[in-house]
Amino acid sequence: MRLLNPQKLNELQRNPNRVRNICILAHVDHGKTTLADSLVATNGIISPKMAGKLRYMDSRKDEQERGITMKSSSIALLHNKGGEEYLVNLIDSPGHVDFASEVSTAVRLCDGAVVVVDVVEGVCPQTQAALKQAWLENIRPVLVLNKMDRLILEMKLSPLDAYVHLTQILEQVNAVMGELFTSEVLGRTVPEKSQSQIDPDKASSLLYDWSAGLEDADDSHLYFSPDQGNVIFASAVDGWGFGIEHFAKLYADKLGVNEKVLQKTLWGDFYLHGKTKRVMKGAQEKAKKPLFVQFALENLWAVYDTVVIRKEKDKLQKIADSLNIKLTVRDMRHTDGKVQLQALCGQWLPLAKTLLDMVCTKLPAPCEITEEKAEKLMCSATERFDSLPSDTQKLKSVFMACSSDEDAPVIVFISKMFPMERRCLPQYRSHPLTAAEIAERREKTRLQHAQRLAQSETPFSVEGTHLLSSGDQMKIEEQKEQEQNDADAFIAFARVFSGTIKKGQELYVLGPKHEPQSALEKLESGEVINPDLTLKDLKSGQHITRVKIDQLYLLMGRELETLDSVPAGNVFGIGGLEEHVLKSATLSSTVACPAFTELAQVVVPIVRVAVEPTHAQDMAALVRGLRLLNQADACVQVIVQETGEHVLVTAGEVHLQRCLDDLRERYAKVAINASEPIVPFRETVVVPPTVDMVNEAIQDQNTASKDGDKENAGEVITLSTSNKHSTIKIRAAPLPTEVTSLLEVHADLLKAVDKHIHSEAGQQNSEMFEDSLSESQMVLTERTLKAIETLKEKLKDAFSSAGDEWKCAESQIWSVGPRRCGPNILLNRIPAYDHPSVWQRLRGSDRRLEYDSSFVNGFQLATLAGPLCEEPMMGVCFIVEDWTLAEETQLDHPSSRSPGSEHNDPSAAAKPGSIPGNLSLSACQAPSAILPESLLSQPYGPFSGQIMSAVKEGCRKAFQARPQRLMAAMYSCNIQVNAEALGKMYAVLGRRHGRVLHGDMQEGSSTFTVTAVLPVVESFEFAPEIRKQTSGLASPQLVFSHWEVIDIDPFWTPHTEEEYLHYGEKADSGNRARRYMDAVRRRKGLAVQEKLVEFAEKQRTLSKNK
Amino acid sequence: MSKIFTPTNQIRLTNVAVVRMKKGGKRFEIACYRNKVVSWRNNIETDIDEVLQTHTVFTNVSKGQVAKKEDLIKAFGKDDQTDVCKEILTKGELQVSDKERQSQFELLFKDIATTVADKCVNPETKRPYPVSMIEKAMKDAHISVKPNRIPLMQALDVIPLLKATMPLERAQMKIRAVLSGRDARKLRDKVAKLATSLESEDWDGGKLNLVCLIDPGHYREVDEIVRSETKGHGLLELMSLKEVTEGEELLE
User: Max CA-CA distance within chain A?
Assistant: First the structure.
């Protein structure tokens, strides 16, 4: 039995006054889906008997298994209220924190919300979040106090106690509402005040103190109160629920009291004076029973007592009779008291009817959209509504009108894309065949049969093979179709805010970053939007595509029904938009329509894992699957890291599990592994520390090191190439921090410069002696040149402020690395070497210039992989003190050359096995540079390569000669935390080596905003831990912020008295840097300084087979 | 039936690793703990008592025959047992224990995998593979590690084997060659043959500026061609060791 048929539906949809778009919000396990079940049951979609057990809205397998909802889904219901029919689009939402993004997609499409609170558990973190979300989206909530049966059966409260308990819970909820209200009012007054200072005319009218802001704003309408009719007491599991008007009506007749009076007094501190039959105030004082207890709760308690606890069947009949309820014989005979109770209460106090009545009266229709909400939808809080183009501002009235006329502009908002198995779509559903179709099929098979016969007769004929191939083709096509049916279709979850959307209509798809201003300008300038464009083809800055509406669906929970058109104010589904919509979008008939503001995200994804296919060949499938997953889930991010890892970022553990399951079974269909992602480190050197680990000044045992020159001597590394022809003196030093950060920020610029110089360098010829920079100016754009100049200036400032040592360093920069754009510098302090700096290309006639690129490459290699654990270096300066190439005459290579040529051709001999490349030099050497073939294959390889490896080794050694440190990537961590969980949150941060920067209390609420920094290595499992420890009262957000030196030498072990005292002899716990370094080394297969067996005696001593 | 414990008349040495050394025509042995000798040799373990079972030099550990003093003096020139033990520890033949071998093997395996991951890219995305994936693929391909070959060589051997199971390619090297003179065109063809793709090619008055990607294995050959055939007129410059896509990317 379906109450909703297409004609009626269409009729109802056209009348926005009769449409209600609502969603159910609550903490996890407070009974949202059960409540939805009983509502669904009223429309005959499921049996009332199964309501509460079936969880119809949980269509996914894992949802049913785990018993929690994981996605928001919508269902259209018909409700008849006192002869008026209403269409209720009910959206069930998940309650678990991890799926908070689904809640925001649901809330966006609704006008009202049903907030469910478990009366035993009270207000929980997610209840607060739900209320906040409803508040942010300006939708009106009503309250359902659920699980009343638990008060009776589990907690065994007396009616009076239960009443007190209920008032407390109501107060809790109202306290949350009040907090939201005050924080908004305070938030609003601050900008107003600041504005008032600017505008003196306004100031006089706006000058008021803090309290005035609160007092002026009326907040009475916000609160939940049974006498206002926006609270329902219910037990969704047993299928009953009531508002006080039910009892008010009932007892008004019985007692002869005015119904309105009773409505006001039934909830609250009122009692019935026995003799006078008058309602009096002050029940608590006089120890009387409040009216609510006397009339409502006691009756309920009595019913539960007789039916469930004492199981008196004859009394049941009596109660039923007194309530005018007819119970079926089957129910009466049933041995389970619960069934009888459900039958009785379901008729006495039907939950669905009460709730839907309340929804229809208390919650606004789509056409009653407030001005405030319309503005909020159209522009985000950061910009002002007036700043939008005038065409767009006009659309506000369209929002308010909610008209479904033909000429009204169409505005549709898509809040998410959800997957649906293709064969579940209505157009693919099997339907009874018509006679014509049967005939057609018969004809087809007959033909096929005939073909097969013909084929068998002439097996070798050309025709036969042709037929065969066509048969194969058909098979392939069928297979393809099959595959397509297996694949998922994405349905857009959407709502029409204005106009009517029809099948076959052409609409603009406006991406989330669309700006009406620029788009309108573009349109005016004659730009046409290509209808064939899809999301993939869009360049940056373009956010508009055109699409023809293909399929419209009515969302019916697990099923879909096709529709031809949808008028304003309805929630519905659109098919065939996969190519056009990524996660959310706006569809409109006009470009002036702004993209709807971003969904108010309560959680941002923070749990990171690296995913990879179990079998390497499935990589492509995984990437495809990740793309689909990204489209289907609003709260998922997929990042491809530099290491090639695919990192999946999800909102929480449960969410992660769901995503992995989806990937395995739905999107990628391959086996995948998830693991901790690889965390990058950096290596650096520091100034020698003056204090040791226990803050004692380090005494110089080595008196020699006091002498500056000798100290330097220890740090300068002298190294020769393997054939002893070249010697390098190199020294490492930490760069001033400002320089490092400058280099880091300007990496792109440096790269551009490098690229430019490289492309130019090829054309060097004899004219090269001109200033190279003037030449390059012609090619680089003005802007880059300017940027280079400012960078130079900044570097100069940074260096000069860093001390004498760095004087003129900016002009001595030889190269930066790694990858020619990193935060390390190669400094040229070679005496009398006419060096090139990074700013210009090679020139000059020094012989060493030929090997310049090898030298730089050696430096690049060294900075790319440091000696600690082969991670890139950062903030290290390598100062080349000297670089000599051996004099030509000493450069004999007697084994490979005849002595004669040695004297004739000294310059060629200087570079055995290398390229005498610089043409400016070639005049003297090139004509005679004829090397015998044997020279080319030298024992140590080409000389350029030797220089490269020598420089690399030199850099590494120089690095090791200084105090080395590891640098860790740091997240800046923003935590919203309730005051009561503050201490526990600090404990978690402390355990993970986080550092709190500051914590502020938010005005008007009891939440703190704490800012901290946390090493990325320690962040794995951080979010789950902090949630567990604080019972979900703290929600962290992590963003990468900077690199920080870990101030422990990775090779440190205690060696002074005090250190032994403090850390013990082994210092197992002390060295964090060592632990990180070893972990990286172990991962990379580098040797780790670690004993295989700590205690030799404590090994398992028996061999395996004895 | 469960195994019945039968007493053996041979008492086996447990937790003992023997280090032997032949010197002066005599064989000397010392008794050490298992899994400790390599740590000692790498200077990780510094406590001699954690390495030596006893500061005694034997001629045969399992029989318990202690070396004679005069033999020690004859062979080592000293009779201090501990000193001799230390010498044998550093110079003697080592019996590698299970854990030592295993960790050596693992390190080598990981080293090879890291090298492969470092040298190769996924040709579809031009991004490297994560090391863990390479390791898994190596295990699936049943690649055995040889302890006495250097990891780099083994990695180069592994690459073609892995190509069979996954899309894998050596990361290309970017080089710039400047050729001039009469044979420039001829040389260009030779270089082009070795290159996988040519990025840019500029002729400027008989001078060629060629930027191309080559397989790292061909670097030597290209180098040789440019060097020998131009007779010093050419210039070869390494622009980047491997061409990979850099930076993070948000998948959409």
Answer: 137
